[in-house]
Amino acid sequence: MWHTTFGRNVGTVEFLTRRFIRIVPLYWLITTFYLIILLIRPNWMYSARFDFFHIVASYLFIPAAHPFPPHFMWPLVVPGWTLNYEMFFYLLFGLALLAASRMRAAIVVATLVCIVSLRAFDPPLNSVIGFYSSSITLEFAFGVLLGYLFTSELPIPRLVCILVILAGFVGLIIGSAPGMLALPRALIAGVPALFIVAGAVFFERTNKIAEIGLPKLLGDSSYSIYLSHGATLSAFGRIWSEFGPDSSKPLFIFLFSLSAIIVATTIGIGVYLFIERPLLRTLSKRVKQINFKAYRPAPSRN
User: Fold this and answer.
1) Residues 234 and 287 occupy one common structural domain
2) Could you tell me which residues come within 8 angstroms of residue 279 by beta carbon, excluding any fewer than 6 positions away?
3) What angle separates helix 250-271 from helix 222-243, to the nearest 10 degrees?
4) pLDDT digits (tens, 9 = 90+) for 21-39
5) pTM for the full model?
6) Which of 209, 216, 259, 276 is the most buried (most CB within 10 A)?
């Protein structure tokens, strides 16, 4: 988000509008699909119960305790829990665009740090404060800081980039050790991820990387895969248990896992090609017709 707005006179309304059409329509469609299944065939939903407030909160990106035990702060479409963080960050970042450009990074990072510091008051984990004060919120601050460094044109040698990436993977391995899992997620996963992404983007800036079709398609489809894979895996698991071989044997566990990954990825790509991409094209055309200049702040020299 820092990189896409850097050096551009992007106003709060334009930023939030473009983020809305990128994230919300597909999520609402899949949430509605889940809701229809829950109402018509509730026995198909292993871990869901109808709760009006929870459904409304799911559509509005409000963290709410899931009605099914253990009552985590999950929406109806479970992977959407990360979108609750994401939409909150978009709102914060959009408001920061009202400030002078030299102050934006400090405002965003300081606000996120203050929110996470609320964890010191030991709020219930299944509360709104407990949800947003998780250390995962700091990972958005990591992204802003990385964006700030990236746009500062800081020269990073190729070898350093590679070493930073390797350090990130080593950090992930160390962080996955049983004794490390009690540490904050931002430390054992966020920092290594920061190293990996930082090394990759700085390496790409100074070294031409060939664009390969399948990895690019997977990247373009990643949001659709992310939102659809839960329903796909649930349905595939039912079909496999009914008609597939005994999954208690190691070979068949491997075959099931491999098949499930292929099926979930294929369905996700289909969702992207036939639903998400056409939807984005249509909405983007309409957004281009909006005159955002009336909502933009005056250009600043800062």
Assistant:
1) yes
2) 25, 26
3) 140
4) 999 999 999 999 999 999 9
5) 0.90
6) 276
